[in-house]
Amino acid sequence: MEEKHLTCIGCPMGCQLTVTMENGEVKEVTGNTCKRGDVYARKEVTDPTRIVTSSVKVNGGKIPMVSVKTKNDIPKGMIFEICKALTDVEVNAPVNIGDVVVPNVCGTGVDVIATKSIPAA
Amino acid sequence: MQSYDLVIIGGGPAGLAAAVSARDNGIESILIIERDHELGGILNQCIHNGFGLHTFKEELTGPEYAQRFIDQVKERNIEYKLNTMVMDISDKKVVTAMNRTDGMFEIQAKAVILAMGCRERSRGALNIPGYRPAGIFSAGTAQRLVNIEGYMPGKKVVILGSGDIGLIMARRMTLEGAEVKVVAELMPYSGGLKRNIVQCLDDFGIPLKLSHTVVDIEGKERVEGITIAEVGPDMKPIPGTEEHYECDTLLLSCGLLPENELSKTAGVSLSPITSGPVVNDSLETSVEGIFACGNVLHVHDLVDFVSEEAKNAGINAAKYIKEGKKVAEKEIKINPTGGVRYTVPVSIRPKEMDDSVTVRFRVGQVFKNSYVAMYYGDTQVLKRKKQIMAPGEMEQVIIKKEELNNYPDISEITVKIEAE
Amino acid sequence: MYDVIIVGGGVTGSAIARELSKYSAKIALIEREVDLCEGTSKANSAIVHAGFDAKPGSLKAKMNVEGNRMMDDLARDLEFPFKRNGSLVVCTKDQDASLLENLKKQGEENGVPDLQILDRDELIKMEPNLADDVVKALYAPTGAIVCPFHLTYALAENAAENGVEFFLDTEVKEIKKDGDTYKVVTDKETYEAKAVVNAAGVYADDLNNMVSNKKIEIIARRGQYMLLDKTAGGHVSHTIFQLPSKMGKGVLVTPTVHGNLLVGPTAEDIDNKEGVNTTGAGLGSLAPTSSLSVKDVPYRQVITSFAGLRAHDTEGDFIIGEAEDAPNFFNAAGIESPGLSSAPAIGVYVAKMVSEKLSLSEKSDFKATRKGILNPADLSIEERNKLIKENPAYGQIICRCESISEGEILDAIHRPLGAKTLDGVKRRTRAGMGRCQAGFCSPRVMEILERELSLSMFDVRKSGDDSKIVFGYNKKIS
């Protein structure tokens, strides 16, 4: 038996959730006031994911940087690795919103895409 | 002098949504005036996700959310001028603006929508003692430097204020290689969303110190250290609780202020609480034909609500342009009390109002297991339980015309928070 | 070999430089900071005193009254903002009104014109926000307000135009007498001069004590201020002083020449000559103290606070003149209040001494005027459009709070002794001095400095060498 503590992000209540785990499986969620807390806790302890947003350099663009994001959720533990992978990435203007900037970033199967269109200067 | 039916001051989320809705309601002659080099306003630097859940039912980043509205403006061929600063608005709705190519010019508008947004509270306004070195930035300035220009304004960072921009920048600076040492918040609660506290601070082990403030800034040329201290119930630092942090940067995220310098030139009355214009149910200010929406009216928590409000401003401005001013038969004041700090709008015209009007407000403290109550005169017409309400989040009640007209004699609507 | 080296690029050094530039001589001014007006001259009450405060016969009294009288012509010739708004020293019902009479008598002896004592009825018509307890006041119509930055820059730019060489970012480490020559050793080079003028502010004692056995001691007396938004600028129209009381010397409440409201200063003697930090206690004392003379000051509209150090001489008067045991070493030391008011007169006084000692002759080609930074807000729409057509940069607003265009910023950067830093741009143009305190415009001003001075963004600074603003590209700071 193992207990994990987390704060629910479903609403400003911020319920303090306690998740009881056994052999990697969720046995019980307590401390939540509504169903959303239960769903959040189960996902967060077994498969926490995040969208990563950042910006990368644009060559020849109207502005020097273009904002980017992972097209889908990536494992929470890979946030820093993905940011690092973006360090020396440069793209050439024009950039269109949705353009793939880095395909299959860090082998996650998720593309990093542009979230803004940057016309050429 | 040039003339337009509608001039919209500001091409951020509010101005864009207002323009689209005015066009869709039959106004052909529209000009958006934007001071920056692109449309979209501050959303352009808000590259994080979490925008648009209400409006588009999906999570977008700031630039993506802005693009949806920019596309709508462009599809409708609505005119706009970039890099153009409005210098003055007269009470006769003459807008004086300036840019490099047109010089200084005047435009006669039939109606004006104010959508200039807000600014951040500065170090000076917070009266933080200490030196005045480089390295003190509002969170938004740092956000622009990092996200738009690609430059890091600090390596070791202390953040004062737990507003959402401060929380977002804590994560952003961390991901870009800086060390964020602590976030101090004057109030006993955070002004930011729970989600941001978890995903921007907890995910990275950044401590949040509630009821703390900065009491000293060291470093004559560049920040070298920051001292924070706990504050008592009077918000004054408690001697002996000082903690020193070695750092090179202080970011401030201590609240936003509607930017109404132009509104004042037009003679628009402002609310001392919101610092935004006083408006009725049509979002019309005290000056006929001048409307306001978005963060210039009151600071919103979510951009989705800005868009919704701006849409209404567009509809009402269009109505005004087509039908002219109708003197309201009666105007009922909305009285915010019992924990409700203000309402927008501040009054309702029962005859002229839309079928339903959304009244937005904020509470002055955290309320748990309380009720939002609304009274038409002395009659309670709403009692809605809320598990939690916090000053950081906007609340709303809806006034239905049909229902309100069942109370023809009332002189006041009350919105308040009740314990039972 | 220079004829004269002036040490210190504050208002005093700049005034002396300008007056000396009327003579045929090789003159240099050395300043340790990267810009002028970085010490006491940048953080003070920004007022030109009428001249009733100082003891009759003192240098303070003489220089103040004369400096005040010179200011109108100087403001016209050198185009800096100056306004005779008049000042009031107010007396509350608990205070001894005869002190006002004494001040008036002292002022008259000093040569201050048109002093009057006014009763509450008249006062309240002039200043409706005077505190309820104010019963009488000494009115000095010649009291005035000035922009201390522009006064200093104007004097220095005019001196430069007339041939004075300026060495900024150069710190004097040692001064040695070598026969008839002074060797001025700096962190860059060693300069030689026949005469040295010491206008080194809070460090004037160090300089004097390098060459003279008649030691002086300058104490840094800190004054903290709060500056309020322009919306509060009309709260008073005159400069309101308080009569000294058991609570202390009191604070002043004054409009600034740019339309803000200024409250301060505190007075604390401190050990640290770099101690320009504000303190919670100091700032906290301003509201209760100011309320003794002016009511309802809207402190919610504070946009910034700052502290400055006055160079207080333990003897109490200005120390101006040749050091007794160091021929050709001239002090302009202990220039605390009313130093800003006195600067033009100190310039004339010191220049006269130096030129007589060195037998300098006046030039025929001295250029007495200087063009200020154009303020487009003073122009009509037609004039403004003509300007923008000629130079489109005047059509691009950079600082939205103060409506400062790129044109004004370019002027500030490219004029003689122009701005090199964010603070330099701010003090010359007011870009970043408004209510948002540079939140919106600083990244844009940084871009302009980067472009115009061919700097890397990493070399754009707020003020001094160590005041870098950005450290590196994203993800690449360690």
Task: State the domain count of chain C.
Answer: 3
User: How many helical stretches of chain A?
Assistant: 2
Give the helix level of chain A as a range of percent. 10-25%
Largest interface: B-C, 56 and 57 residues
Query: What is the CATH superfamily of the largest domain in chain A?
Result: CPE0013-like
Number of structurally distinct domains of chain A = 2
How is the biggest beta sheet of chain A arranged?
A: 5 strands, mixed
Oligomeric form: heterotrimer
Describe the structure.
The complex is a heterotrimer of chains A (121), B (420) and C (478). Chain A is of the alpha+beta class and 121 residues long. Chain A has two domains: 46 residues; 62 residues, CPE0013-like fold (Roll). Chain A contains two helices and ten strands. In chain A, the strands form three sheets. Chain A has a five-stranded mixed sheet, with no helix packed on it. In chain A, a hairpin with a 5-residue loop joins β5 and β6. The radius of gyration of chain A is 19 Å and the shape is elongated. In chain B, the strands form seven sheets. In chain B, strands 1, 2, 5, 6, 7, 8 and 20 form a seven-stranded mixed sheet that branches. In chain B, strands 10-18-12-13-14 form a five-stranded parallel sheet. Chain B starts with a strand and ends with a strand. Chain B is built from nine helices and 28 strands. In chain B, α1 crosses α8 and α4 crosses α5. Chain C is of the alpha+beta class and 478 residues long. Chain C has three domains: 155 residues, FAD/NAD(P)-binding domain; 155 residues, D-Amino Acid Oxidase, subunit A, domain 2 (D-Amino Acid Oxidase, Chain A, domain 2); 84 residues, Arc Repressor Mutant, subunit A. Chain C is built from twelve helices and 23 strands. In chain C, β21 and β22 form a beta hairpin. Chain C starts with a strand and ends in a 5-residue tail after the last strand. The mean pLDDT of chain C is 96. Chains B and C meet through β7, β8, α3, α4 and β11 of B and α7, β18, α9 and β23 of C.
